[in-house]
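Re: that backbone. Tokens:
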């Protein structure tokens, strides 16, 4: 019997790898050229600068916090940042025109409402922008009445805060930070066919479980906690990263993926949520804007308000159930030009209409009108 030629097998494997690498490199170069054209032709006009000072209190959501800081620096003359622990002291020292709090939950101290009351007694306007609605609405509804202005990204929560006695409540969508979530060239280590970055909440686990036969053999990235709870974890583990992925890495994975999935978490879940009123989720998550801001092709579950921000089939793609998602992923993996066209349209829409500077312009217009 003739022995296998190990050299020949190794050479064939290396040649296949080189071919794959060449194809990836060529595709990346073509994609970056298209992205650069969109970047060059889709810059919004400078935002109006208000002659006000703002003290911004971070939540700890790095992507959102930095996006708001960058947006404020484009729209408010003086911007300070702080944590909740130092908020009152800095408000007393700096006397800003506005104290803006991001979310106000999770890492904020129990005495935060008393600190906000003390800030208001100084004659300083206060505002909060809830980014976790409606998942922690049991907690946010107790916090909202302590502020002069309440902003929420979730439409379904506006009546909740109004019913709690808040007279100034506004729906304000989240956005993307174009200085961070942007097209970048990446190495082969970040390239994949299908990518999802986020916690493996039960509905997401169920979705991936249903798609496992399709995913086998694909280059996948599933990054975040709880993904080891997948029914067929062993079959997919090569593409699973059971840890939090830093923003810089997330941007690279988005840029390197042929398809980025966006699966919103369910709003009804007693284990992970504090939403006893079972308020629905109509508004889209920040991931929607961030993926599009990277010039990545995105398939998302369709939320009620999605079409107000991106046109399905032209700037983003949607699905209703696992079978439709599998069908669309199979289609777009085979049609790269169609995929790229939709991704570029989504990038253009994000640059022109969904940056944090646009949202902060609206917020400041409300507070200082």
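Recovered sequence:
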């Amino acid at each position: 019997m003739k022995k296998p030629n190990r050299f020949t097998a190794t050479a064939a494997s290396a040649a296949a790898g080189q071919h794959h690498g060449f194809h990836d490199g060529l595709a990346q170069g073509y994609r970056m050229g298209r992205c650069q054209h969109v970047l060059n032709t889709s810059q919004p006009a400078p935002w109006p600068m208000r002659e006000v000072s703002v003290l911004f209190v971070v939540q700890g959501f790095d992507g959102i916090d930095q996006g708001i800081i960058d947006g404020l620096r484009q729209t408010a003359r003086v911007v300070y940042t702080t944590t909740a622990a130092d908020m009152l002291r800095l408000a007393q020292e700096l006397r800003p025109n506005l104290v803006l709090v991001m979310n106000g939950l999770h890492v904020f101290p129990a005495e935060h409402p008393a600190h906000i009351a003390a800030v208001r007694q100084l004659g300083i306007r206060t505002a909060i922008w809830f980014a976790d609605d409606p998942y922690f609405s049991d907690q946010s509804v107790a916090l909202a009445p302590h502020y002069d202005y309440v902003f929420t990204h979730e439409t379904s929560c506006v009546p909740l805060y109004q019913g709690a006695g808040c007279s100034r409540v506004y729906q304000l969508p989240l956005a993307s930070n174009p200085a961070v979530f942007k097209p970048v060239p990446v190495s082969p280590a970040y390239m994949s066919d299908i990518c999802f970055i986020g916690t493996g909440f039960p509905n997401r686990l169920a979705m991936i479980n249903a798609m496992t036969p399709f995913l086998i053999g694909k280059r996948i990235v599933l990054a975040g906690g709880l993904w080891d709870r997948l029914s067929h974890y062993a079959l997919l583990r090569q593409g699973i990263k059971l840890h939090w992925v830093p923003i810089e890495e997330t941007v690279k994975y988005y840029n390197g993926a042929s398809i980025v999935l966006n699966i919103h978490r369910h709003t009804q879940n007693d284990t992970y949520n504090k939403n006893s009123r079972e308020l629905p989720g109509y508004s889209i998550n920040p991931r929607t804007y961030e993926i599009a801001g990277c010039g990545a092709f995105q398939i998302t579950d369709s939320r009620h308000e999605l079409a107000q921000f991106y046109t399905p089939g032209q700037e983003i793609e949607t699905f209703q159930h696992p079978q439709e998602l599998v069908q669309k992923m199979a289609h777009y993996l085979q049609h790269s030009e169609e995929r790229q066209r939709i991704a570029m349209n989504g990038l253009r829409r994000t640059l022109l209409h969904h940056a944090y500077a646009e949202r902060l312009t609206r917020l400041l217009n409300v507070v200082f009108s």
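The first helix runs from residue 6 to 41. The chain has 13 helices and twelve strands.
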